Amino acid sequence: MTNSKISSILIVGGGSAGWLTAGIIAARHGQSVKISLLESSTLPTIGVGEGTWPTMKTTLQKMGISETEFFRYCDVSFKQGAKFCQWVTGKKDDFYYHPLTLPKDFLDINLAPFWLENPSDSFSNSVSFQEAICEKNLAPKTLLMPEYAAAANYAYHLDAGKLTEFLSQHCQQKLNVQHIIGTVDEVLVSEQGDINSVKTQDGQSYQADLFIDCTGMSSLLLGKALNTEFVDKSDVLFIDRAIATQVPYESEDSPILPYTLSTAQSAGWIWDIGLTSRRGTGHVYSSRHMSDDQALKQFSDYLGKPLKETTVKEIKIPCGHRKEFWKHNCVAVGMAAGFLEPLEASALVLVELSANYIRDQLPENKAIMPIIAKRFNQLNTHRWNSIVDFLKLHYVLSKRTDSQFWCDNRDPQTIPDSLQELLQLWQYQSPYMHDFLYKEEVFPAASYQYVLYGMGFDTQAALAMSSQQRQRYAQSINENKQIKQKALNSLPDNRTLLNKIKTFGMKAI
Amino acid sequence: MTNDYQMLSKTAHKNLRVCESKLHDLQVATQIAPVLITEVDRLAAEFSLFFSKNSQTGDFVLVALLGFSDNENLFLADGQWQSSSIPLAFERHPFLIEQTDGSIFIDMQSPAVSTTEGERIFDDTGEASAYLQRKISVLEAIYNGAEPTQQFIKLLQEYNLLEPVKLDITFANQSQQSIDGLYTIASERLAGLAEQAMINLHKQNLLQPCFLVMHSLQHLQALIDKKNQRL
């Protein structure tokens, strides 16, 4: 332990986690700290994670990226939330939305208890205008709005491979990140447990004060070299396999859905993400409940065409995370830290949150690093547990009985205590700000409301409400109706706007 | 309103007439009018000039603000302009000049165009009438001003000299209105502009238009007064 300054960072691994982390940290520290990224020229990146959270807007903006260039390079389209089909009853007309716009006036008033008294329309349609514009395939903004500005909150659908290239160029050209090509051969660890250096197959050796492990599922530094235990969550979340394929649009003017479509199957679900160039689709399922052949069959049925195994990419999902995320002078970001099914697009947002933390709390010197590591680990343990709870919630609230998969998911043995406790609480009060202890929760209380009430959970709110409160509620609901009408009249078709962004671009102001 | 622009022809259109008084419908129904850099001197004396975005392309255009709601032109009363000059964009109707090659078109759907009423556009010998010659000089001015206007706006963006302005207005009857989508010159950034950029603007005679555009904002109050008188 010394008081020496942290003057160099080596990021190992160049997928979206590696380059996002490089960009986020370098945008702040690129001039004062030497930031290098080592990546193998041979290892293919996994290329999942095609949906982001709205946080990506700020992340890119802070890196000084033009949103227009990003849209053009990475085949980006708008994502305004997720539409969950057949998750509750499994019937054809069964769907609900988890939009990215908060319920109307959410920071001032909790509309859920009022809605629960008289749920005439769906929850998300009553408290937000976003479901309505999604159902009409409208974009969340107009061409005249500046880059990153929105009429309705949005995130992105993107080509993850192209994102990596795009960020790599930006980091090297604008943010002073040094790019090293090399395949990790050996990680040298000191007696104290610190990583001294990383040796590559071409015989080079790279030292740094802080190592960031972005090596994906192999977790070469944190997992392998530092022997950090893996916490398996497959007893809670059963999905352990994915098959994915890319689907071309039928024609040049087929609609591009402005949301992620998630359709439940008998032992998993299918994602359907529209980029400007193609659709990205995949079936994730539990291999304990369904054979690979069955999974392929269901996937083919969904796509309406026979699939050959050769055109389908198979991915095994190791559900869980490392017990510690920051150990000695090594911190893992992305799949090197852990991986969960992509149900709520939590992968990239976790990369952003972790990299933001490292950027903001970059230790002044090595002596205080253990304190920061400890706090980082506490926060991340909480985050991973919250995500596991939130994903599990989607399965617990389902009323489907058509397969063992859905029944097993509701077995109390498979529901974490923390989630059981919340479900008990929510029987009597709806989730709101007080339920969440951290400032930067991955999923805000609003997300829980959208899922709970979208899936028909009943909260028996017993609190008496004043007439002023009721008036306030009626006002918010009315205003939402007006905003909805205005949005329906003024927002352009999603594909039309995306084409215009390609042709004309958005202005920075 | 639909348009049917046909390339102006001495033969096909030899009997056409234009009745200017029937053009006003077109002019009433607009809140902003495009302005050329060559007109800034003249128009900044009466109109508030801004930049706004073309709704089709998102590109910036220089405009005069004429009203506060979609179809409002407060400079018109009973079909008559209340200002001493008007933007060329209004004077061109019912003609149009193609910006690529300078060909002239006439809008056959315009209510002002007929074979019975108004000024002839070609005389008996088939040559352009005095009326058409006046129109052609307007069209030529538009043609010549378009490129320098785009250059001006391009340079302003390059030097990061545009900034959004939001108008929050309370009218005499206490009704309130916000107007988004307007931009003006960022005066502080202009004052702090690097020497080379400043010299460049000056040499291209683009510094004065910057100050005129900023100065023209003072006409806003007069426009609000016009609106108040009609409430």
Total discrete domains of chain B = 1
Mean pLDDT of chain A: 94
Residue share in helix of chain A: 25-40%
- What's the CATH first level of the domain at 8-75 and 157-233 and 322-386 in chain A? Alpha Beta
Q: What CATH architecture of the domain at 8-75 and 157-233 and 322-386 in chain A do you see?
A: 3-Layer(bba) Sandwich
Q: State the CATH superfamily name of the domain at 8-75 and 157-233 and 322-386 in chain A.
A: FAD/NAD(P)-binding domain
- Beta-strand segment tally of chain B: 13
* Helical residues, percent of chain B: 25-40%
Which structural class should the secondary elements of chain A be placed in?
alpha+beta
Separate helix tally of chain B: 8
Instruction: Specify the biggest β-sheet of chain A.
Output: 7 strands, mixed
- At the fold tier of CATH, the topology name of the domain at 8-75 and 157-233 and 322-386 in chain A is FAD/NAD(P)-binding domain
Main beta sheet of chain B: strand number and arrangement? 3 strands, antiparallel
> How far is the N terminus from the C terminus of chain A?
48 Å
Unreliable residue stretches of chain A? none
Class based on secondary structure composition and strand pairing of chain B:
alpha+beta
**Number of helical segments of chain A?**
16
